[in-house]
Specification:
alpha+beta; Rossmann fold; Arc Repressor Mutant, subunit A; Structural Genomics Hypothetical 15.5 Kd Protein In mrcA-pckA Intergenic Region, Chain A; 6-stranded mixed sheet; 4-stranded antiparallel sheet; globular; disordered C terminus; UAE_UbL_dom; ATP binding
């Protein structure tokens, strides 16, 4: 909004010991979108459900388990073993014939985790044994997953209670920075099941994950450590698991205070009309070679490939036109990726309206891009009047993407490849032309050497 209104913006943030302040001025400095932002890390469902290798996988699984038992049930967040999933490290490997026969003959009829828990009245020990014994034993039958991995070890509730000193729920909370024993995790698990069930019965709506809810966070931490133990993954403390589950980095007051001071300093420059003196400022966790933890630099110029502040406003999107829908283009690419609010899209080749912010084209939303003759090389003119934003979307067709999946680039990879090939051809041509011309130079060099030698003899 500041860019559209041509008003300076002081962008800032902190992450633990790291902090930064950046002044953004239209046409003078790079804007917020000039640098690509890191994507949020996601994990394949088969890794979460079948083959966790890091504690974060167990933490994500535990959040899913909480939702399956007490929260909003999402079919994509199932926590039971996925018998149809491929090995992510060997995607083309087929299950053995024994596994296929066992799946057809002996596999029980699928039942939801919530429904199963209700059938046993949320008995903590039975729920524990279902998640950490029965499901793990079922998972071990997928022998093709364990050819290059250590098999998980099923764990009964009775056995877990003997693994270390079992602290009470309250005592465990006082040791949030310490790694709980498995016995403590089992105790906390049982307490949380009981208390969260009471809360669920009192509430008219399903419970939601909240990293600051003591009972919810304790349940997730206990589950994550128990599953980590089963898969021979190092356990972590409640404090560390909370940071992972909430995707947070603990704030440091001194860093925030420094950043606030830097913001005020840059604001005063703008108020006093000294925009030319604006700086980008940073704080470091450790001193640099000059012994400084506080650094500043001149604002960076606009990125010529930025789709917001460059003159071209170009974005290259790689999609499968036979798979991606118009709705996927609108919601995922334009709104989610490019942060548009009310996009209007016109096909630059046919001048047909593809997407209208007024809803006139809603009937086309389920259609594939190919059905609207949008294929490789198509150029879509995208306008967002709410932000005074215009973007040219260049379509590049690829076959390996499925559904509404897409990849975005600020530069044309094909154009980049062509330029590289032309440059290589030019260098080869120049090399061929230069080679013969070096012969006279070498001849002259030898003559000069002879003349110098003759002069030395005369002397």
């Amino acid at each position: 909004m500041c860019y559209a209104a041509d008003r300076p913006l002081i962008e800032s943030g902190s992450s633990g010991y790291l902090g930064q302040v950046q002044v953004i001025m239209r046409g003078k400095t790079e804007c917020y979108e000039c640098q690509e932002k890191p994507k949020q890390v996601t994990f394949p469902g088969c890794t979460i459900r079948n083959t966790p290798s890091e504690h974060i996988h167990c933490t994500v699984w535990s959040k899913h388990a909480f939702n399956q038992l007490f929260g909003e049930v999402d079919i994509d967040d199932d926590v039971s073993p996925d018998m149809k999933a491929e090995d992510p490290e060997h995607p083309n490997e087929e299950p053995s014939q024994e596994e296929k026969e066992a799946e057809v003959a002996g596999a029980p009829k699928p039942i939801g985790t919530r429904q199963w828990a209700e059938s046993v009245e949320f008995d903590a020990e039975k729920v524990f044994d279902k998640l950490f014994t029965q499901d793990i034993e079922y998972l071990r039958k997928m022998t093709h997953l364990w050819k290059e991995r250590k098999q998980p070890t099923p764990l009964l509730f009775a056995r877990a209670m003997t693994m270390g000193k079992a602290l009470s729920f309250d005592d465990a909370q006082n040791q949030s920075s310490e790694v709980w024993s498995i016995a403590t995790c089992a105790t906390v698990f049982a307490t949380c099941i009981k208390e969260l069930l009471k809360e669920l019965k009192k509430s008219e709506n399903p419970l939601s994950f909240d990293k600051d809810h003591q009972m919810v966070m304790s349940f997730v931490a206990a589950c994550a450590n128990i599953r980590a133990n089963i898969f021979s993954i190092q356990l972590k403390s409640l404090f560390d698991i909370k940071a992972m589950a909430g995707n947070i980095i603990p704030a440091i007051a001194s860093t925030n205070a420094i950043v606030a001071g830097m913001i005020v300093t840059e604001a005063l420059k703008i108020i006093n009309g000294c925009e030319g003196d604006a700086k980008c400022s940073f704080t470091r966790k450790t001193p640099n070679p000059r012994g400084k933890v506080f650094l500043d630099d001149l604002p960076y110029p606009p990125n010529p490939n930025c789709y917001i502040c460059s003159a071209s406003h170009r974005v290259f999107i790689y999609v499968n036109p036979n798979e991606m829908t118009v709705q996927g283009l609108r919601d995922k690419v334009l709104k989610q990726e490019l942060n548009m609010i009310e996009p209007d899209v016109i096909d630059g080749n046919t001048f047909n309206v593809v997407i209208s912010s007024d809803g006139d084209t809603d009937a086309s939303l389920p259609k594939k891009l190919a059905e609207l003759s949008i294929s490789n090389g198509a150029v879509l003119n995208c306008d967002d009047f709410a932000q005074d934003l215009e973007v040219k979307l260049f379509i590049r067709a690829v076959s390996h993407l499925k559904g509404d999946a897409y990849e975005v680039s600020r530069v044309d990879e094909e154009e980049k490849k062509d330029k590289a090939e032309k440059e290589e051809a030019r260098k080869r041509k120049v090399g061929d032309e230069v080679e013969p011309s070096e012969e006279p130079d070498a001849k002259r060099a030898k003559e000069n050497q002879k003349e110098a030698a003759a002069a030395m003899e005369i002397m």
